[in-house]
Amino acid sequence: MTTSTQPVPAAKPVLRSEGEPLAPRVFRLVLQAAIALSILVLLTLLIDVLMDGGSKLSMDFLTSPASSTPAKAGIEPAILGTLWLIAVAAVVIVPLGVASAIYLEEYADPDRWYNRVIEVNIQNLAAVPSIVYGILGLAFLVRGPIELGATIMAGGLTLGLLVLPVVIIAAREAIRSVPQAIRQGALALGATKWQTTQRQVLPAAIPGIATGVILALSRAIGETAPLIVVGAAVFVTSNPSGLDSKFTALPIQIFEWISRPQEEFQLLAAAAIIVLLVILVFMNSIAIFLRNRYQQKW
Amino acid sequence: MPSPTTPGGSSAGAPSTGSKLVSGRSRRGEHIIQWLLAAAALVSVATTLAIVVSLLAETILFLQKVPITDFLFGTEWAPTFADPSFGVLPLVAGTLLTTFLAILVAVPLGLGAAIYLSEYATPKVRKTLKPILELLAGIPTVVFGYFALTFVTPLILQDLLGLEVQGFNALSAGLIMGFMVMPTIASLAEDAMSSVPAALREGAYGLGANRMQVSTRVVFPAALSGIVAGVVLGISRAVGETMIVLVAAGSIPNLTANPLDPVATMTAFIASIAKGDAAVGSVAYETLFAVGMLLFVSTLIMNMISIRFVRKFRQAY
Q: Which entry of A3, A224, A236, B132 is 20 to 30 Å from A37 by CA?
């Protein structure tokens, strides 16, 4: 026994002694530092924005149009533009996203090549840079075959296409998490496939789908680059009046103010950022609320 | 008695004729529904095709005027000058530089966070930390740009570190972009590490390994394909990111590897030329699509690699 363990220890004690004292503790500290640093940057960012923009926030700021005098400038057209854009995007992505997800989860045979193409394609679209969607919007919706001009309709459709993959992926996950037993039960009672899907699977998946839609829309709200390319106007003094009106949006207004050299405008940008972040936090809390309140654990 | 017989009787009497009727009638409806659903799924395929067509059409026009070798290998980018030149290398260099800086930040932070969340954190800690990282991922990029321009550059780089940087520089944009990309890497890597079977860990613990050894020598290699997928996707995100570089790195095409210089990336160029309202049909307008094509193809390749690796680890466990 003792003779046979003699040659092995050469490796073993190293493992043991390294094990307890220093290296693992340092390793754990390094890992914690990685997370702490990320949180620190996030906090610094939030505090910086609050300190810069807090003093500029007022009712007047929220209800005034853009102006070349910093003291009078506001973000009403930008807020309304953002709401219009999101409404258009939502109208596009909810039916398309849910229908695609139902097809892929309930109907498509995953072994067929065309269904695999659709699947890989959606994963791919989710990672295409947002500015490329802007180019698509510019070429197809603003100028090319559809020629909507730089309108709310074109901007909203562009944002809708941009976040459609996010919705599809979230809706698929929600549909997949409905237990198979529910489908089998409905089918055994004589329901057709669509009846099963429509009356059993879909209602059970709605909280998950709604969460996905809200998160997708909150991503769309912050998108700036595609709207720049589609041609959002940077200086808008009147509120949008319909789908065919020119528009600006909160992130566009923020970008416009950041690009100006005067400090006053930078502070306005910070104030608008606060408004944008408040909207995002609000939407995310709805999503979290829905997830916790309605999502069933099967 | 009467109430049970009605449904019972109808279903008992109907089967032979009823099932034929029902299946015959509903099958057509079912088929129509299936086609409609498939059509909706095809919209995303059509989107990809539309992206390719819109990029390709103008790129071909562009390449008829500018030889492709001048475009890909030229070292000067000045498409709107009176004497224009169309060498895309300065934009590529700007993209590579900011991406490199971002990855330098995002990979260690993202992997560190992933290992901690997957191997060390208690479920309760994980439940608090993950939403915070999601919050970081949800910050609009124009806000990161503001932070890089008005906080990182003047206060951190210039005042605290005393670097000789101008207001616009690749360094602050790249560093902050790293924090934007970090949650992407962390979430994919954590996903991969969490799906490594517990038996592998238990085997290693049983042999006397400690947590660090289990994390770095067992879980990390076992989850490698997922980790690679995360890093590649992170690089693709950084390459495609527009607002941070547009706001904080300036938009001066600059063939440089010095992070203290201002640079323009491919994305920043596309945004600034689109903002400038170049006339349709002009070469300047077409450059937008040519650069967009380059951007699309390079991110597409990275995305495909990433998807491949994700599938690999999903299959393994």
A: A224
Is the confidence metric ipTM above 0.95 for this complex?
Answer: no
Distance (Å) from the C-alpha of residue A44 to the closest C-alpha of chain B? 9
**Structure confidence by residue, pLDDT tens digits, A160-194:** 999 999 999 999 999 999 999 999 999 999 999 99
Q: Which two tokens stand for residue B227?
A: 């980790």
Encode A60-88: b = buried (16+ Cβ within 10 Å), e = exposed. Answer: ebeebbbeeebeebbbbbbbbbbebbbeb
Rounded to 5°, the CA angle B16-B22-B28 comes to 135
Question: Contact at 8 Å (CB) between B306 and B232?
Answer: yes
pLDDT value at position B26? 54
Give the sign of the dihedral formed by CA A254, CA A69, CA B270, CA A149: positive
Flag whether residue A231 sits within 8 Å of chain B, measured between CB atoms: yes
How much helix, strand and coil, in percent to the nearest 5, is found in chain B? 80, 0, 20
Given a contact cutoff of 8 angstroms between Cβ atoms, the answer to whether A91 and A159 are in contact is no
Which of A145, A290, A296 minimizes the C-alpha distance to A217?
A290
Please tell me the predicted confidence (pLDDT) of residue B298.
Answer: 95
Measured in whole angstroms, the distance separating CA B313 from the mean position of its chain's CA atoms is 19
CB-CB under 8 Å, B143 with A254: yes
Tokens of B89: 């290398």
Task: Give the amino acid at A185.
Answer: G
| CB spacing of B150 vs A44 below 8 angstroms | no
Query: Given this model, what pLDDT does residue B3 score?
Result: 40
Q: Tell me, what DSSP letter sits at residue A70? A: G
Q: Which two tokens stand for residue B207?
A: 């042999």
List of chain B residues with pLDDT < 50: 1-22, 24
Q: For B185-210, write each residue's pLDDT tens digit.
A: 999 999 999 999 999 999 999 999 99
Cβ of B143 within 8 Å of Cβ of A284? The answer is no
Q: How many angstroms away from the CA of A50 is the closest CA of chain B?
A: 12
**Dihedral of CA B181/B184/B187/B192: which sign?**
negative
Q: Are A133 and A180 in contact (CB under 8 A)?
A: no
